[in-house]
Amino acid sequence: MPPSSPSEGRSSGRLVDDLGRRRFLFVTGKGGVGKTTFSAALAAALAREGKRVLVALPNTKERLSAILGSKPIGDEIVPVAEGVWAVNISPEKALTEYGEMVLKVRSVAHAVFDNRYTKTFFRAVPGLYEWAMLGKAWFHTTELGPDGRPRFDVVLLDAPATGHGLDMMRVPKVILDVVPPGVLRRDAEEAWAMFRDPARSGIVVVTLPEEMPTQETIELVEAIKKDLTLPVLRLVVNAVLPQLFSPEERERLSRESGLLSIDAPERTNGTPESALVAGARRAVREKVQAESLERIEKEIDLPRILLPHLFDEASTVEGTRVLSKLL
């Protein structure tokens, strides 16, 4: 029975203890499944445990500031909550910063990386911008503060959606395959070694209990494990509805075609039958959800956590607070 509060399967210990031991976490999944919402909640939960967390966004139309109630997040690292910082990584700026570290002279780096001709060339190099963003996020795991401690305990990358996310994760491996020895290869080797080490890094996959997200998630997890051989730590099933109907009731209501027709809500508006229409639609959603959860259980061998559907608080500061406490 799907819970109204989070539950876990095939796992032991608290989620924040398990994930908080890692230095770098990827959060990925199909677009629209709540990756950013989960990233915000996880960052807040880890911060509550005393961790200093950086949430890195890869040049995205960011929603994190609205979810956390902070000012808009740009390409500079800014505090967004107690113990949480964030940055929306610009690939061009990240590439320039990388050039400064390699060339050691700021003016020379800007002369090279801010030139419109070299920018055109860089944009044409496959995977270079992806590495600039991923490499910057990884670099922040190596930074030390004035006290000699890591500047951030956990770097959390709110990775791109499925296909693009896979491409970004694959970039360090591609660099190792094709780039000769040098600074770029050295950094890619260090990053790839971390990403493959389940004690230091791992991937959290977020999905919804719906047909298309479930299918895409099954394919995503298989690709990560087989093609990239990277550690997948958890599966998060987001927005799980509390169960109102028994399996028998769901079957019966989902067969009532008259209640499910496109004109049924308008036709029954203001009548007692409108409750049956609403119930039939909810029963169909519950049926799809139950089938999706059953398939996830059968085909994805991962510890998982089910998070409840937030009706009025989804993607809000209060909703983030609710989810972070549940985590």
From TrEMBL:
A Pfam family this chain is assigned to: ArsA_ATPase
Domain ArsA/GET3 Anion-transporting ATPase-like: start-end pairs: 23-175
Reactions accelerated catalytically: arsenite(in) + ATP + H2O = arsenite(out) + ADP + phosphate + H(+)
CDD domains named among the record's database cross-references: ArsA
Record-level Gene Ontology MF annotations: ATP binding; ATP hydrolysis activity; ATPase-coupled arsenite transmembrane transporter activity
EC number: 7.3.2.7
PROSITE patterns: TAT
Alphabetical list of InterPro entries matching this protein: ArsA/GET3_ATPase-like, ATPase_ArsA/GET3, P-loop_NTPase, TAT_signal
Similarity-based family: Belongs to the arsA ATPase family.
Protein name per its UniProtKB record: arsenite-transporting ATPase
